[in-house]
Amino acid sequence: MTTGEHCQDTAECLYERINNGREIRVNACRGYGDTALIPETIEGLPVTELGPYVFSEGKRTAPAGEWTVAHESGKEPPLIEGNRLKTLALPRSVRKAGKYAFYNCHQWERLVCHSTFNDIGAGAFTGCKHLTHLDITMEPDVPRPGLKDILSELRQEVHVTYRTKEGSTRLVFPEFYEDAVENTPARIVSVKVYGSGHFYRYCFDGRDLQFKDYDAQFENLVILDREELAVEAAVGRLRGPVSLTAEARERYLEYLSAHKTGAASWFFKEQDTAGLKWLLDTVDFDENDLAAAIEAAGKAQAAEGLSVLMDYRHRKFRPKRRTFEL
């Protein structure tokens, strides 16, 4: 999903010139929706920064600058901040976000950005517990791609669309949390980490994602997390096989083959009939498997999925015509 798919119009921006007037910093946004699409240029200058507290309702001082669109007093659109922000889409030019840029944007769900977004201020993601979808385009020759820095700030489950010039793939980074355990006699406090997401966030060499290491964590995901998430991880890598080794491919296929009903149910939830057809073409369903999937489709009230399964059963398991000899 690209930035242009989220909103046809850019947000109205409060901006100021920085770096000797050569670049633009956005300090606030306003609009009638819940999506902020930041423009790549303002007045012909590249937009390179988001200011401190830019989307937070907790601004300590009134932000500086001028608006890209002028309105009569009292008729301005409301600010897109706090709980109003649901989707933020950044152009390639944006490299930096100031401190507490998204502080307590509790309902923020999706960030669309590029790997050039790699300078994130302290506390920028504090309180953003519903930010669970990240769409990132990896630009070539970026020395510090920002994916690792973003994920390190988010302990919740994050679903990532990862785009490269070779193609795109879908990744999952599960939730993890820490718990401090005190050993009173020894006067020691140890920290225990729960959830496979902790392992997944170490699948980087420097700031570059290592797909081999990412795929190697699948066993931890299967053991520590729910079936639905494991299905998503397997499907995402198989349908978008960027840097996928033969060994990892076989491992993902084995999992889907052992969890056919769960895989079909995931596609029902996603309302992805094309994906369901892909599953039926990729994994061998016998009559019992198909019957279980059909039952699951009925329980999920997935009419389109049920239609696909019934058509598949008709084609693959068509009853043979009886013949009679006289």
List strands and helices in order, with pairings.
Layout: E1 12-18, E2 23-30, E3 35-37, E4 41-42, E5 45-50, E6 66-67, E7 87-89, E8 96-97, E9 110-114, E10 119-120, E11 133-137, H1 147-152, E12 158-164, E13 167-173, E14 177-183, E15 188-194, H2 197-200, E16 204-205, E17 208-209, H3 211-216, H4 218-224, H5 227-239, H6 246-258, H7 260-270, H8 273-282, H9 287-299, H10 303-316
Parallel strand pairs: 2-5, 3-7, 5-8, 7-9, 8-10, 9-11, 11-12
Antiparallel strand pairs: 1-2, 1-6, 4-5, 12-13, 14-15, 16-17
Helix pairs in contact: 5-6, 5-7, 7-8, 7-9, 8-10, 9-10
Describe the structure.
This protein has 326 residues and is of the alpha/beta class. The chain is 30% helix and 24% strand. The chain has ten helices and 17 strands. Strands 1, 2, 4, 5, 6, 8 and 10 form a seven-stranded mixed beta sheet that branches. A six-stranded mixed beta sheet has the order 3-7-9-11-12-13. The chain has a two-stranded antiparallel sheet with strand order 14-15. Strand 14 (177-183) and strand 15 form a beta hairpin. Helix 7 (260-270) runs parallel beside helix 9 (287-299) and helix 9 packs antiparallel against helix 10. It is globular. The termini are far apart. The model is unreliable at 1-7 (pLDDT under 50).
